[in-house]
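so my prof wants the structure for this chain in the tokens format not the other one, which i didnt know existed until like an hour ago. anyway here's the sequence
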Amino acid sequence: MKRRRIFRVLAILGTLAALAPAARAGDCHAPADLRDGDTTFPRFAARLKQGKPITIVAIGGSATAGAAAPGQAYPQRLQQALARLYPKASIRVLNKGVPHQTAAEELARFPADIIAEKPDLAIWDTGTIEAVRGFDVGAFAATLEDGLALLRRHRIEAVLMDMQYSRRIAAVIDFDPYLNAMQRAADLGGAYFFRRFEIMRYWSDSGAFDFDEVPKADRATLAAAVYDCLGRELAGAIAAAALP
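here's what i got, hopefully its the right format
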């Protein structure tokens, strides 16, 4: 794929969350088999039970930064969703999104942007650039394993989140090797694997959202709907992992 086409695809992926028709509240719930997992968050659960403040850091690229809807990215929506689930708890979600970074570049920011914040939970949203540019899958997997191992050493529970989905982009990019590498890294690293790619594919197939055919003028407004759905799905996944 030519360089110009690669960056055109990156630009599209960077705004996928905005490419959606309006959805009624509740339309975007994902099936349990796409969201539930075996990973548990005992630290998060213990701090909830003890009434201690909880810090979550979200690190990633354009979607984490909220490029399509500034101020309404999924980390902000996640904090709102967790506040509804746990009205008596003090939970803050820090947004450390920087557009267009690779997993290796994000890992380089871990000491300052995650470890220094001493969070209870970290969400790592990554993999898009590697898949689009055709990076070596083995090197990508090693980066993920290194990052998750670093979080474990600092007793930080982790969510590993895969890429966004669009039927048009999935037709020209082979995401499968990178998705498989992320699943394996999460399993090895004891992280919860949030399957955003499959959840968004379900939304697309079910008609909840159309990620390919939306007028440009509507994108910034409609992005908030998808960010809100992702925030609610993440909050539900975290809550399930924090159950005894």
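also thought this was worth mentioning. The chain has one domain: 3-19+32-241.
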